[in-house]
Design brief:
- The complex is a heterodimer of chains A (about 120) and B (about 110).
- In chain A, about 0% of the residues lie in helices and about 50% in strands.
- Chain A has no helices and 11 strands.
- Chain B has about 110 residues and is an all-beta fold.
- In chain B, strands 2, 4, 5, 9, 10 and 11 form a 6-stranded mixed β-sheet that branches. A 5-stranded antiparallel β-sheet of chain B has the order 1-3-8-7-6, with no helix packed on it.
- In chain B, a hairpin with a 4-residue loop joins strand 7 and strand 8.
- Classes of the chains: A mainly beta (about 120), B mainly beta (about 110).
- The interface between A and B is medium-sized, with 26 and 22 residues.
């Protein structure tokens, strides 16, 4: 099956710093990637849709200036949490839509655990 | 209207039992219903998925039953094993933007 990777898997940072998380589709091209946030023992909440070569679209209530998304190539999307605060601590998961495969399938990355001190 | 309601929140079965997880939705525009399995600290993995024009789909030990008129669908795990212990999420896709809305999740524990 299609593989999506995320880097880093875990990151701890100080309050006020910015953190970049990478999402890569390893064996397929993804014109569309999605970023989710998951709190402990909770469901996945869609934050934004990342479109290759264009601006990301954000879900209602998600601050676009806080969570910067860049999708510069067909295999890479990045999420930057700017001026992170403890309430941004969460599990961030990306998914990628296989452009050349089954149109309905989203493949998920392994997630990135962000802890803001 | 965008919500997907999932029940139960948790489930304990003995090895060989059949955990059943139910989901309900309101938005009739949803056109694709996948199920995901998630282990602690990992991303969700696609298990099986169904379209609303199909009433049942089986893949290995996993079966989805779909009731379009009731706007409900369920996952059955046949001959469950301890390795199936995980959190299971149903989801529904909005055609516009291919966005998924997830249910709240069900933690399944299969006892040896």
């Amino acid at each position: 099956g299609a593989v999506v990777s995320q880097h880093p898997s875990r990151v701890i940072c100080k309050s006020g710093t910015s953190v970049k998380i990478e999402c890569r589709s390893l064996d397929f091209q993804a014109t569309t990637m999605f970023w989710y946030r998951q709190f402990p023992k909770k469901s996945l909440m869609l934050m934004a849709t990342s479109n290759e070569g264009s601006k990301a679209t954000y879900e209602q209530g998600v601050e676009k200036d806080k969570f910067l998304i860049n999708h510069a190539s067909l295999t890479l999307s990045t999420l930057t949490v700017t001026s992170a605060h403890p309430e941004d601590s969460s599990f961030y998961i990306c998914s990628a839509r296989d452009h050349g495969g089954l149109p309905d399938t989203q493949y998920f990355g392994p997630g990135t655990r962000l802890t803001v001190l | 209207q965008q919500q997907v309601k999932q029940s139960p929140q948790s489930l304990i079965v003995q090895k060989g039992g059949i955990p059943i997880i139910n989901c309900a939705y309101e938005n009739t525009a949803f056109d694709y219903f996948p199920w995901y399995q998630q282990f602690p600290g990992k991303g969700p993995a696609l298990l099986i998925a169904i379209r609303p024009d199909v009433s049942e789909k089986k893949e290995g030990r996993f079966t989805i039953s779909f009731n379009k008129s009731a706007k409900q669908f369920s996952l059955h795990i046949m001959d469950s094993q301890p390795g199936d212990s995980a959190t299971y999420f149903c989801a529904a896709r909005r055609p516009a933007g291919n966005k998924l809305t997830f249910g709240g999740g069900t933690r399944v524990l299969v006892k040896p």
